[in-house]
Design brief:
The protein is of the alpha+beta class and about 525 residues long. It is built from 23 helices and 11 strands. The strands form 3 sheets. Strands 1, 2, 3, 4 and 6 form a 5-stranded antiparallel sheet that branches. Strands 5-10-9-7 form a 4-stranded mixed sheet. A two-stranded antiparallel ribbon has the order 8-11. Strand 2 and strand 3 form a beta hairpin. Helix 4 packs antiparallel against helix 5, helix 17 packs antiparallel against helix 18 and helix 20 runs parallel beside helix 21. It starts with a helix and ends with a helix.
Protein backbone atom coordinates (compact mmCIF):
# COMPACT_ATOMS: atom_id res chain seq x y z
CA UNK A 1 0.00 0.00 0.00
CA UNK A 2 2.78 2.41 0.92
CA UNK A 3 4.69 1.54 -2.26
CA UNK A 4 1.56 2.17 -4.32
CA UNK A 5 1.14 5.58 -2.66
CA UNK A 6 4.80 6.39 -3.32
CA UNK A 7 4.35 5.45 -6.98
CA UNK A 8 1.36 7.78 -7.19
CA UNK A 9 3.42 10.60 -5.65
CA UNK A 10 6.24 10.04 -8.13
CA UNK A 11 3.71 9.96 -10.97
CA UNK A 12 2.27 13.32 -9.94
CA UNK A 13 5.84 14.60 -9.54
CA UNK A 14 6.63 13.63 -13.14
CA UNK A 15 3.34 14.80 -14.69
CA UNK A 16 3.71 18.28 -13.26
CA UNK A 17 7.36 18.59 -14.20
CA UNK A 18 8.77 19.04 -10.71
CA UNK A 19 12.18 17.64 -11.66
CA UNK A 20 13.71 21.13 -11.37
CA UNK A 21 13.30 20.89 -7.60
CA UNK A 22 15.65 17.89 -7.74
CA UNK A 23 18.10 19.51 -10.18
CA UNK A 24 18.40 22.55 -7.95
CA UNK A 25 21.06 20.76 -5.90
CA UNK A 26 23.49 19.97 -8.68
CA UNK A 27 26.25 18.90 -6.30
CA UNK A 28 24.45 15.70 -5.30
CA UNK A 29 24.92 12.90 -7.88
CA UNK A 30 21.99 10.83 -6.60
CA UNK A 31 19.62 13.75 -6.93
CA UNK A 32 20.92 14.50 -10.43
CA UNK A 33 20.28 10.87 -11.41
CA UNK A 34 16.76 10.87 -9.95
CA UNK A 35 16.03 14.17 -11.66
CA UNK A 36 17.01 12.77 -15.05
CA UNK A 37 14.72 9.77 -14.53
CA UNK A 38 11.76 11.98 -13.63
CA UNK A 39 12.38 14.83 -16.06
CA UNK A 40 9.67 15.47 -18.63
CA UNK A 41 10.23 19.03 -19.89
CA UNK A 42 7.83 21.07 -21.95
CA UNK A 43 6.06 22.75 -19.02
CA UNK A 44 5.35 26.43 -19.58
CA UNK A 45 3.67 27.15 -16.23
CA UNK A 46 5.69 28.55 -13.30
CA UNK A 47 7.08 26.01 -10.88
CA UNK A 48 4.91 27.28 -8.01
CA UNK A 49 1.73 26.70 -10.01
CA UNK A 50 2.85 23.19 -10.94
CA UNK A 51 3.72 22.35 -7.33
CA UNK A 52 0.34 23.61 -6.11
CA UNK A 53 -1.52 21.50 -8.67
CA UNK A 54 0.51 18.42 -7.79
CA UNK A 55 -0.39 18.81 -4.11
CA UNK A 56 -4.06 19.28 -5.00
CA UNK A 57 -3.93 16.09 -7.07
CA UNK A 58 -2.37 14.11 -4.21
CA UNK A 59 -5.24 14.83 -1.85
CA UNK A 60 -6.25 16.71 1.30
CA UNK A 61 -3.24 15.80 3.46
CA UNK A 62 -0.77 17.14 0.90
CA UNK A 63 -2.97 20.21 0.41
CA UNK A 64 -2.82 20.90 4.15
CA UNK A 65 0.94 20.32 4.19
CA UNK A 66 1.26 22.78 1.31
CA UNK A 67 -0.65 25.31 3.38
CA UNK A 68 1.79 24.80 6.25
CA UNK A 69 4.73 25.22 3.88
CA UNK A 70 3.22 28.45 2.56
CA UNK A 71 3.67 29.92 6.04
CA UNK A 72 7.33 28.86 6.19
CA UNK A 73 9.19 31.27 3.87
CA UNK A 74 12.34 30.17 5.65
CA UNK A 75 11.93 26.80 3.93
CA UNK A 76 10.80 27.75 0.43
CA UNK A 77 11.39 30.59 -2.07
CA UNK A 78 8.94 33.52 -2.21
CA UNK A 79 7.38 32.59 -5.56
CA UNK A 80 6.48 29.11 -4.29
CA UNK A 81 5.25 30.39 -0.92
CA UNK A 82 2.94 32.85 -2.68
CA UNK A 83 1.48 30.17 -4.90
CA UNK A 84 0.99 27.65 -2.08
CA UNK A 85 -0.86 30.34 -0.14
CA UNK A 86 -3.61 30.02 -2.77
CA UNK A 87 -4.37 26.47 -1.71
CA UNK A 88 -7.94 26.31 -0.48
CA UNK A 89 -8.63 23.71 2.16
CA UNK A 90 -11.77 22.55 0.38
CA UNK A 91 -12.32 19.09 -1.01
CA UNK A 92 -15.40 17.35 -2.42
CA UNK A 93 -17.90 16.50 0.37
CA UNK A 94 -18.59 12.92 1.32
CA UNK A 95 -22.16 11.67 0.73
CA UNK A 96 -25.07 11.82 3.16
CA UNK A 97 -25.06 8.03 3.63
CA UNK A 98 -21.56 8.20 5.11
CA UNK A 99 -22.53 11.19 7.27
CA UNK A 100 -25.43 9.19 8.69
CA UNK A 101 -23.16 6.18 9.31
CA UNK A 102 -20.62 8.28 11.24
CA UNK A 103 -23.32 9.96 13.36
CA UNK A 104 -25.20 6.77 14.19
CA UNK A 105 -21.98 4.93 15.06
CA UNK A 106 -21.02 7.77 17.39
CA UNK A 107 -24.40 8.08 19.13
CA UNK A 108 -25.68 4.51 19.02
CA UNK A 109 -29.07 5.72 17.79
CA UNK A 110 -30.63 7.23 14.69
CA UNK A 111 -29.97 10.80 13.60
CA UNK A 112 -33.68 11.58 13.99
CA UNK A 113 -33.54 10.56 17.66
CA UNK A 114 -30.59 12.88 18.35
CA UNK A 115 -31.58 15.94 16.27
CA UNK A 116 -34.97 17.54 15.74
CA UNK A 117 -33.88 18.58 12.23
CA UNK A 118 -30.77 17.91 10.13
CA UNK A 119 -29.71 19.48 6.83
CA UNK A 120 -27.93 16.81 4.82
CA UNK A 121 -26.38 19.36 2.45
CA UNK A 122 -22.97 20.36 3.86
CA UNK A 123 -22.21 24.05 4.24
CA UNK A 124 -18.44 23.50 4.34
CA UNK A 125 -16.11 20.65 3.42
CA UNK A 126 -12.46 20.49 4.47
CA UNK A 127 -9.60 18.01 4.61
CA UNK A 128 -10.66 16.04 7.66
CA UNK A 129 -14.30 17.01 8.29
CA UNK A 130 -17.38 18.73 6.93
CA UNK A 131 -20.09 20.84 8.55
CA UNK A 132 -23.90 20.59 8.49
CA UNK A 133 -26.61 22.74 10.06
CA UNK A 134 -29.13 21.13 12.39
CA UNK A 135 -31.47 21.72 15.33
CA UNK A 136 -31.42 20.17 18.80
CA UNK A 137 -33.90 20.08 21.67
CA UNK A 138 -32.09 21.42 24.75
CA UNK A 139 -33.58 20.96 28.21
CA UNK A 140 -33.46 24.02 30.48
CA UNK A 141 -34.95 23.12 33.82
CA UNK A 142 -38.53 21.99 33.30
CA UNK A 143 -38.75 23.28 29.74
CA UNK A 144 -37.25 22.27 26.40
CA UNK A 145 -35.99 24.84 23.90
CA UNK A 146 -34.83 24.37 20.34
CA UNK A 147 -31.35 25.55 19.35
CA UNK A 148 -29.77 26.05 15.93
CA UNK A 149 -26.42 24.25 15.81
CA UNK A 150 -23.51 23.51 13.50
CA UNK A 151 -22.49 19.84 13.35
CA UNK A 152 -18.91 19.00 12.38
CA UNK A 153 -18.51 15.40 11.18
CA UNK A 154 -15.14 13.68 10.78
CA UNK A 155 -14.42 12.10 7.40
CA UNK A 156 -14.80 8.31 7.52
CA UNK A 157 -11.64 6.18 7.22
CA UNK A 158 -9.39 9.25 7.20
CA UNK A 159 -6.86 7.96 9.77
CA UNK A 160 -5.19 5.25 7.58
CA UNK A 161 -4.72 7.75 4.74
CA UNK A 162 -3.17 10.28 7.09
CA UNK A 163 -0.82 7.74 8.68
CA UNK A 164 0.38 6.53 5.28
CA UNK A 165 1.04 10.04 3.97
CA UNK A 166 2.75 11.16 7.17
CA UNK A 167 5.08 8.17 7.04
CA UNK A 168 6.16 9.18 3.53
CA UNK A 169 6.59 12.82 4.59
CA UNK A 170 8.88 11.70 7.43
CA UNK A 171 11.04 9.75 4.98
CA UNK A 172 11.27 12.71 2.60
CA UNK A 173 12.14 15.06 5.47
CA UNK A 174 14.98 12.81 6.63
CA UNK A 175 16.32 12.59 3.09
CA UNK A 176 16.20 16.37 2.70
CA UNK A 177 18.09 16.77 5.97
CA UNK A 178 20.84 14.42 4.79
CA UNK A 179 21.42 15.87 1.32
CA UNK A 180 21.13 19.60 2.11
CA UNK A 181 23.04 21.56 4.74
CA UNK A 182 20.45 24.35 4.66
CA UNK A 183 17.62 21.85 5.19
CA UNK A 184 19.50 20.37 8.14
CA UNK A 185 19.68 23.78 9.82
CA UNK A 186 15.92 24.22 9.34
CA UNK A 187 15.19 20.76 10.81
CA UNK A 188 12.52 19.44 8.37
CA UNK A 189 11.83 16.28 10.47
CA UNK A 190 10.75 18.54 13.32
CA UNK A 191 8.55 20.55 10.97
CA UNK A 192 6.84 17.32 9.87
CA UNK A 193 6.55 16.26 13.52
CA UNK A 194 4.77 19.52 14.31
CA UNK A 195 2.47 18.96 11.32
CA UNK A 196 1.83 15.41 12.56
CA UNK A 197 0.88 16.65 16.03
CA UNK A 198 -1.54 19.32 14.87
CA UNK A 199 -3.09 17.07 12.25
CA UNK A 200 -3.79 14.34 14.82
CA UNK A 201 -5.21 16.97 17.15
CA UNK A 202 -7.69 17.87 14.40
CA UNK A 203 -8.80 14.23 14.20
CA UNK A 204 -10.14 14.34 17.78
CA UNK A 205 -13.19 16.58 17.74
CA UNK A 206 -13.51 16.35 21.52
CA UNK A 207 -10.15 18.12 21.69
CA UNK A 208 -11.36 20.77 19.24
CA UNK A 209 -14.48 21.30 21.34
CA UNK A 210 -12.29 21.73 24.43
CA UNK A 211 -10.19 24.32 22.56
CA UNK A 212 -13.35 26.22 21.70
CA UNK A 213 -14.52 26.15 25.32
CA UNK A 214 -11.16 27.43 26.56
CA UNK A 215 -11.15 30.33 24.10
CA UNK A 216 -14.76 31.10 25.07
CA UNK A 217 -13.77 31.31 28.76
CA UNK A 218 -10.73 33.45 27.96
CA UNK A 219 -12.93 36.02 26.18
CA UNK A 220 -16.04 35.75 28.32
CA UNK A 221 -17.73 39.15 28.39
CA UNK A 222 -15.37 40.59 25.76
CA UNK A 223 -16.76 43.04 23.23
CA UNK A 224 -13.98 42.12 20.78
CA UNK A 225 -14.42 38.37 20.27
CA UNK A 226 -17.25 35.86 20.68
CA UNK A 227 -16.74 32.11 20.69
CA UNK A 228 -19.66 29.69 20.15
CA UNK A 229 -21.08 27.56 22.94
CA UNK A 230 -20.30 23.85 22.78
CA UNK A 231 -23.11 21.36 23.45
CA UNK A 232 -21.19 18.58 25.16
CA UNK A 233 -24.06 16.07 25.28
CA UNK A 234 -23.87 15.91 21.48
CA UNK A 235 -20.04 15.80 21.17
CA UNK A 236 -18.06 12.63 20.42
CA UNK A 237 -14.52 12.06 19.07
CA UNK A 238 -15.97 12.00 15.54
CA UNK A 239 -18.71 14.64 16.02
CA UNK A 240 -18.67 18.20 17.39
CA UNK A 241 -21.87 20.19 17.92
CA UNK A 242 -21.73 23.90 18.71
CA UNK A 243 -23.86 27.01 18.54
CA UNK A 244 -24.68 28.13 15.02
CA UNK A 245 -23.20 31.56 14.36
CA UNK A 246 -25.04 34.17 12.32
CA UNK A 247 -22.31 36.50 11.11
CA UNK A 248 -20.80 37.96 7.96
CA UNK A 249 -17.45 36.62 6.68
CA UNK A 250 -14.71 39.11 7.45
CA UNK A 251 -13.59 39.34 3.82
CA UNK A 252 -16.99 40.74 2.70
CA UNK A 253 -15.94 44.29 3.51
CA UNK A 254 -18.67 46.06 1.52
CA UNK A 255 -21.43 44.18 3.35
CA UNK A 256 -19.82 44.96 6.70
CA UNK A 257 -19.64 48.68 5.87
CA UNK A 258 -23.30 48.65 4.82
CA UNK A 259 -24.20 47.08 8.18
CA UNK A 260 -22.49 49.94 10.03
CA UNK A 261 -19.24 48.21 11.01
CA UNK A 262 -16.26 50.53 11.56
CA UNK A 263 -13.73 48.76 9.33
CA UNK A 264 -10.69 50.68 10.63
CA UNK A 265 -11.57 49.79 14.24
CA UNK A 266 -12.21 46.20 13.16
CA UNK A 267 -8.65 46.01 11.81
CA UNK A 268 -7.19 47.35 15.08
CA UNK A 269 -9.36 44.98 17.11
CA UNK A 270 -7.99 42.03 15.16
CA UNK A 271 -4.43 42.96 16.12
CA UNK A 272 -5.43 43.42 19.77
CA UNK A 273 -7.20 40.03 19.84
CA UNK A 274 -4.09 38.33 18.48
CA UNK A 275 -1.70 39.89 21.01
CA UNK A 276 -4.17 39.30 23.85
CA UNK A 277 -4.36 35.59 23.06
CA UNK A 278 -0.59 35.26 22.70
CA UNK A 279 0.69 37.32 25.64
CA UNK A 280 -2.14 37.40 28.16
CA UNK A 281 -3.36 33.82 27.73
CA UNK A 282 -0.49 31.97 26.06
CA UNK A 283 -3.25 30.10 24.18
CA UNK A 284 -4.22 31.30 20.71
CA UNK A 285 -6.33 30.37 17.73
CA UNK A 286 -3.65 29.37 15.22
CA UNK A 287 -5.75 29.19 12.05
CA UNK A 288 -6.99 32.78 11.78
CA UNK A 289 -7.41 33.04 8.02
CA UNK A 290 -10.52 34.86 6.68
CA UNK A 291 -12.39 31.58 6.18
CA UNK A 292 -12.39 31.00 9.94
CA UNK A 293 -13.28 34.54 11.04
CA UNK A 294 -16.63 36.34 10.76
CA UNK A 295 -18.15 39.52 12.18
CA UNK A 296 -21.49 40.02 13.93
CA UNK A 297 -23.86 42.70 12.67
CA UNK A 298 -26.85 42.12 14.97
CA UNK A 299 -27.92 44.99 17.27
CA UNK A 300 -25.76 45.32 20.35
CA UNK A 301 -22.88 43.31 18.86
CA UNK A 302 -22.02 45.18 15.67
CA UNK A 303 -18.34 44.72 14.81
CA UNK A 304 -17.70 41.81 17.20
CA UNK A 305 -15.50 39.05 15.82
CA UNK A 306 -16.63 35.43 15.99
CA UNK A 307 -14.31 32.45 15.63
CA UNK A 308 -14.74 29.11 13.87
CA UNK A 309 -12.70 25.93 13.40
CA UNK A 310 -10.66 25.38 16.56
CA UNK A 311 -8.70 22.30 15.52
CA UNK A 312 -5.35 24.13 15.56
CA UNK A 313 -4.38 26.18 18.60
CA UNK A 314 -0.96 27.30 19.80
CA UNK A 315 0.44 27.49 23.31
CA UNK A 316 3.40 29.42 24.67
CA UNK A 317 5.22 29.06 27.97
CA UNK A 318 5.91 32.01 30.27
CA UNK A 319 9.53 31.97 29.06
CA UNK A 320 8.44 32.07 25.40
CA UNK A 321 6.05 34.98 26.03
CA UNK A 322 8.61 37.01 27.97
CA UNK A 323 11.28 36.45 25.32
CA UNK A 324 8.91 37.34 22.46
CA UNK A 325 7.67 40.48 24.22
CA UNK A 326 11.23 41.67 24.82
CA UNK A 327 12.10 41.11 21.16
CA UNK A 328 8.95 42.82 19.87
CA UNK A 329 9.52 45.84 22.09
CA UNK A 330 13.17 46.00 21.12
CA UNK A 331 12.08 46.03 17.46
CA UNK A 332 9.50 48.73 18.10
CA UNK A 333 12.07 50.85 19.94
CA UNK A 334 14.69 50.14 17.26
CA UNK A 335 17.00 48.72 19.92
CA UNK A 336 18.72 46.30 17.55
CA UNK A 337 21.55 45.73 20.01
CA UNK A 338 19.04 44.25 22.45
CA UNK A 339 17.58 42.05 19.70
CA UNK A 340 21.04 40.69 18.88
CA UNK A 341 21.90 40.06 22.55
CA UNK A 342 18.55 38.32 23.15
CA UNK A 343 19.26 35.90 20.31
CA UNK A 344 22.73 35.17 21.66
CA UNK A 345 21.54 34.77 25.26
CA UNK A 346 18.78 32.40 24.19
CA UNK A 347 21.24 30.15 22.36
CA UNK A 348 19.52 30.60 19.00
CA UNK A 349 22.84 31.57 17.40
CA UNK A 350 26.31 30.06 17.93
CA UNK A 351 28.03 31.41 21.05
CA UNK A 352 30.89 32.94 19.04
CA UNK A 353 28.58 35.23 17.07
CA UNK A 354 29.64 38.89 17.18
CA UNK A 355 26.77 41.00 18.58
CA UNK A 356 27.72 44.04 16.49
CA UNK A 357 27.51 42.09 13.22
CA UNK A 358 24.13 40.58 14.09
CA UNK A 359 22.91 44.01 15.24
CA UNK A 360 23.90 45.61 11.92
CA UNK A 361 22.22 42.82 9.94
CA UNK A 362 18.94 43.14 11.85
CA UNK A 363 19.03 46.93 11.48
CA UNK A 364 19.40 46.66 7.71
CA UNK A 365 16.21 44.57 7.59
CA UNK A 366 13.96 46.44 10.01
CA UNK A 367 14.90 50.09 9.72
CA UNK A 368 13.30 50.63 6.28
CA UNK A 369 9.84 49.43 7.41
CA UNK A 370 9.17 51.62 10.43
CA UNK A 371 6.86 54.61 10.29
CA UNK A 372 5.22 53.30 7.12
CA UNK A 373 1.59 52.17 6.73
CA UNK A 374 0.83 48.52 6.20
CA UNK A 375 -0.11 49.21 2.58
CA UNK A 376 3.51 50.05 1.80
CA UNK A 377 5.20 47.17 3.59
CA UNK A 378 4.76 43.44 3.93
CA UNK A 379 5.55 41.71 7.16
CA UNK A 380 6.05 38.56 5.10
CA UNK A 381 8.86 40.27 3.16
CA UNK A 382 10.41 41.44 6.42
CA UNK A 383 10.36 37.83 7.62
CA UNK A 384 11.97 36.69 4.39
CA UNK A 385 14.84 39.12 4.86
CA UNK A 386 15.19 38.13 8.48
CA UNK A 387 15.41 34.49 7.43
CA UNK A 388 18.18 35.33 4.98
CA UNK A 389 19.99 36.93 7.91
CA UNK A 390 19.33 33.81 9.97
CA UNK A 391 21.02 31.64 7.33
CA UNK A 392 24.08 33.85 7.42
CA UNK A 393 24.34 33.57 11.22
CA UNK A 394 23.21 29.93 11.45
CA UNK A 395 20.13 30.80 13.50
CA UNK A 396 18.10 27.70 14.36
CA UNK A 397 14.38 28.05 13.64
CA UNK A 398 12.42 27.24 16.81
CA UNK A 399 9.63 24.71 16.05
CA UNK A 400 7.45 25.90 18.94
CA UNK A 401 7.13 29.30 17.22
CA UNK A 402 6.05 28.00 13.80
CA UNK A 403 2.33 28.38 14.60
CA UNK A 404 2.90 31.84 16.03
CA UNK A 405 4.62 32.94 12.82
CA UNK A 406 1.80 31.46 10.72
CA UNK A 407 -0.84 33.26 12.78
CA UNK A 408 1.01 36.56 12.66
CA UNK A 409 1.09 36.36 8.86
CA UNK A 410 -2.64 35.63 8.88
CA UNK A 411 -3.22 38.69 11.05
CA UNK A 412 -1.18 40.79 8.63
CA UNK A 413 -3.25 39.56 5.70
CA UNK A 414 -6.48 40.24 7.56
CA UNK A 415 -5.33 43.75 8.52
CA UNK A 416 -4.28 44.52 4.95
CA UNK A 417 -7.66 43.41 3.66
CA UNK A 418 -9.62 45.52 6.14
CA UNK A 419 -7.47 48.64 6.37
CA UNK A 420 -4.46 49.00 4.06
CA UNK A 421 -3.26 51.96 6.13
CA UNK A 422 -3.23 50.14 9.45
CA UNK A 423 0.08 50.66 11.30
CA UNK A 424 0.68 47.23 12.79
CA UNK A 425 3.58 48.43 14.92
CA UNK A 426 1.79 51.43 16.46
CA UNK A 427 -1.26 49.28 17.20
CA UNK A 428 0.72 46.55 18.97
CA UNK A 429 3.33 48.57 20.88
CA UNK A 430 1.05 50.05 23.61
CA UNK A 431 -0.41 46.62 24.31
CA UNK A 432 3.04 45.03 24.71
CA UNK A 433 4.35 47.83 26.91
CA UNK A 434 1.33 47.49 29.17
CA UNK A 435 1.78 43.72 29.32
CA UNK A 436 5.46 44.03 30.22
CA UNK A 437 4.61 46.46 33.05
CA UNK A 438 2.09 43.96 34.37
CA UNK A 439 4.72 41.19 34.27
CA UNK A 440 7.66 42.94 35.95
CA UNK A 441 6.16 45.86 37.89
CA UNK A 442 4.99 46.08 41.53
CA UNK A 443 1.50 44.95 40.53
CA UNK A 444 2.96 41.72 39.12
CA UNK A 445 4.79 40.94 42.38
CA UNK A 446 1.65 41.68 44.41
CA UNK A 447 -0.43 39.39 42.18
CA UNK A 448 2.07 36.53 42.47
CA UNK A 449 2.19 36.95 46.26
CA UNK A 450 -1.60 36.74 46.42
CA UNK A 451 -1.53 33.60 44.26
CA UNK A 452 0.95 31.96 46.66
CA UNK A 453 -0.85 33.15 49.82
CA UNK A 454 -2.93 29.95 50.39
CA UNK A 455 0.18 27.76 50.18
CA UNK A 456 2.17 30.07 52.48
CA UNK A 457 -0.67 30.18 55.01
CA UNK A 458 -0.92 26.36 55.05
CA UNK A 459 2.83 25.83 55.62
CA UNK A 460 3.48 28.73 58.01
CA UNK A 461 2.81 26.71 61.26
CA UNK A 462 5.49 24.19 60.19
CA UNK A 463 8.24 26.79 59.71
CA UNK A 464 9.57 26.77 63.36
CA UNK A 465 9.95 22.96 63.36
CA UNK A 466 11.59 22.94 59.90
CA UNK A 467 14.03 25.68 60.94
CA UNK A 468 14.88 23.81 64.19
CA UNK A 469 15.48 20.54 62.30
CA UNK A 470 17.74 22.31 59.78
CA UNK A 471 19.82 23.97 62.54
CA UNK A 472 20.10 20.67 64.43
CA UNK A 473 21.41 18.86 61.34
CA UNK A 474 23.87 21.67 60.62
CA UNK A 475 25.35 21.62 64.16
CA UNK A 476 25.53 17.83 64.56
CA UNK A 477 28.95 16.13 64.09
CA UNK A 478 29.32 14.23 60.82
CA UNK A 479 28.32 10.58 61.04
CA UNK A 480 31.12 8.00 60.72
CA UNK A 481 31.26 6.18 57.40
CA UNK A 482 29.54 2.79 57.37
CA UNK A 483 31.78 -0.30 57.68
CA UNK A 484 32.59 -2.06 54.41
CA UNK A 485 30.11 -4.73 53.50
CA UNK A 486 31.27 -8.32 53.88
CA UNK A 487 29.97 -11.17 51.80
CA UNK A 488 30.28 -14.72 53.03
CA UNK A 489 31.89 -17.50 51.01
CA UNK A 490 28.58 -19.39 50.75
CA UNK A 491 26.87 -16.26 49.35
CA UNK A 492 29.44 -16.12 46.54
CA UNK A 493 28.96 -19.82 45.83
CA UNK A 494 25.16 -19.48 45.57
CA UNK A 495 25.48 -16.44 43.30
CA UNK A 496 27.83 -18.34 41.00
CA UNK A 497 25.42 -21.33 40.84
CA UNK A 498 22.45 -19.07 40.00
CA UNK A 499 24.42 -17.31 37.25
CA UNK A 500 25.50 -20.67 35.79
CA UNK A 501 21.88 -21.91 35.78
CA UNK A 502 20.66 -18.77 33.98
CA UNK A 503 23.36 -19.16 31.33
CA UNK A 504 22.40 -22.77 30.82
CA UNK A 505 18.71 -21.90 30.38
CA UNK A 506 19.50 -19.13 27.90
CA UNK A 507 21.79 -21.47 25.98
CA UNK A 508 19.08 -24.10 25.58
CA UNK A 509 16.74 -21.45 24.15
CA UNK A 510 19.02 -19.47 21.83
CA UNK A 511 21.53 -22.06 20.50
CA UNK A 512 18.84 -24.07 18.56
CA UNK A 513 17.47 -20.83 17.14
CA UNK A 514 20.91 -19.78 15.94
CA UNK A 515 21.56 -23.18 14.38
CA UNK A 516 18.26 -23.03 12.51
Amino acid sequence: MRLFRLARILGAFRRHGLDEFVFRDGSNPWLRFAGRLLATGGHSEPRGVRLRRALEELGPIFVKFGQVLSTRPDLIPPDIAGELAKLQDRVPPFPAEQVRAVLEAAYGCTVEEKFTAFDWTPVASASVAQVHFAKIALRQGETTVERDVAVKVLRPNILPVIESDLALLRVLARLAERVSADAKRLRPPEVVAEFDKYLHDELDLIREAANCSQLRRNFAGSSLLYMPEVYWDWCEPTVMVMERLYATPVNQVDELRAAGVNIEKLARDGVEIFFTQVFRDGFFHADMHPGNIAVRTDPGHVGQYVGMDFGIVGTLTDVDRRYLAENFLAFFRRDYRRVAMAHIESGWVPPGTRPDELENAVRSVCEPVFDRPLAEISFGKVLLRLFSVSRRFNVEIQPQLVLLQKTLLNVEGLGRQLDPYLDLWATAQPFLERWMREQIGPEAYRRRLLEQAPYLAATLPEWPRLIHDALTRASAPPAPPPPPATVSLWTNVWLALIAFALLAILGTIWIPLLLD
